[in-house]
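Form 7-S
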Amino acid sequence: MNVLAIDASGPLLAVALKTGEGFAEAALDLGLRHAERLVDLIDFCMQRAGIVPGGLDLIACTSGPGSFTGLRIGMATAKGMALALGKPWIAVPTLDCLAWGRECPGGAVAPILDARRGNVFAAIYERGTRVSTWLDVSLARLAELLDTYPEALVTGPDAGLFEELAAERAGFRIDLRAREPAARALAELAQERFLRGGPSAPDEGPLYLRPSEAEESAASREGA
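Output:
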């Protein structure tokens, strides 16, 4: 199965193309300038894998949480390609992708993304299964939740934010692979979930855990 995976949920823009021969991957860490380079990365992976657009079987993107703009760009691109090519598409939560393949026997895995304002987006996983709600919490609150486990592995591109708290707790550690692109994991999860449950609905939107700054500003003006 040929799966094109697009992760535009954070500053690291990543694309992976999974084929029967393996993976073609590309990533750029240029800040939130995804609209400028996403098509280039897709073209690079397609050419490297020797796959034409019509040879794709599934198009996937991360659904969030993450950057409001990045998520919209990634999802719009995935939906647009799927519609134009007559192919199915599927969205997978960003934190599921960041936790994929990470193990902490007897403990918990917690992928985190910087949510600004002193908070992180996070979730807690045991043996590959999410056991918490989607979290928009302070680092201190996340530490309290993880303190109920004898061990914890903190991962994700912003895992370094937890480094000081992890150093204070026996059994807590920061994933050495925390900043690896999530597109390969996205491709794997997308194929698995598509085969099990089918594509995402045409009207599915990004997973936002809070209103955007623009929405908050509008609400503030209305309430003034």
